[in-house]
Amino acid sequence: MLTNNAAMQQVYFLSGLGADERVFRFLDMPFCKPVYVPWIIPLPHEKLESYAQRLRQTIPEAHPLLAGVSFGGMLAVEMAKADPQIKAVIISSAKTRQELPRWMHAARYFPVYNCIPDAWLRAMAQRCNWLFGAEKQESIHAFHSIIRDCFVPFNTWAFGAILRWKNTIIPGNLLHIHGTADKMLPYARVQCNVTIPGGKHLMVMDCAASITPHLQSFLQLPSNDRH
């Protein structure tokens, strides 16, 4: 029986581009102690791979359990590549550059996102819920709140780092969960381990009940007896 949160296994959560730990608030995780990894400041022109390894240094455990959404999943892939003893779950994400959509490959050569004012980017993101896919009213409110609070310069760097990402290696120590209705990272382009029917890009919020058992099982976390 697990009754003391301090005795539970820690799981380190990496949020998506423009998001923070609020994106994980709908997951029911009595079986672990979630630790939300804060972003560090990227170096000028830093690649995603380099940033992932610097961020890894902020995690104190030798072989941590990771869970990453979208951009956070890509960082988890790079960390898992470097350490085969890490276990990582990625949600609504991509493992290699081949799994990125075609429009992202085109955007690499036309980086107009660098020229758009911060306020415009926030307004555009809030009006593009169809792309992110938050459905429930509580999820939509949380999504809009996250967008209002996001640090646009970091997001601009992160988006550019994704476009320049060249990974072709799929580490064997991870589980990829993806939804069939993801418009940001289309399901047809990824090879996932677990399919969530109808899941959209923000399914970590709207389909949390379907995701949590896979997270617990793959990371081999024990059930928590609440009684």
Overview of the structural elements:
It is a single chain. With 227 residues, the chain is an alpha/beta fold. It has a single domain (5-218), classed as Alpha/Beta hydrolase fold, catalytic domain (Rossmann fold, 3-Layer(aba) Sandwich), CATH 3.40.50. The chain contains 9 helices and 6 strands. The protein has a 6-stranded parallel sheet, with helices on both faces. α1 crosses α2. It starts with 9 loop residues before the first strand and ends in a 9-residue tail after the last helix. Residues 1-6 have low confidence and may be disordered. Keywords: Hydrolase.
Percent of residues in helical segments?
25-40%
**CATH fold name, please?**
Rossmann fold
What is the alpha-carbon Rg in Å? 17 Å
Instruction: Count the domains.
Output: 1
String of helices and strands: EEHEHEHHHHHEEHH
CATH level-four homologous superfamily name = Alpha/Beta hydrolase fold, catalytic domain
Please count the beta strands (DSSP E, at least 2 residues each): 6
List the uncertain runs. 1-6
N-to-C CA distance: 9 Å
CATH classification, class level: Alpha Beta
Largest sheet, order of strands side by side? 2-1-3-4-5-6
Shape: globular
* CATH architecture annotation: 3-Layer(aba) Sandwich
* Number of alpha- plus pi-helical segments: 9
The mean pLDDT is 85
Percent strand: 5-15%
User: Biggest β-sheet: count, sense, barrel?
Assistant: 6 strands, parallel
Structural class: alpha/beta
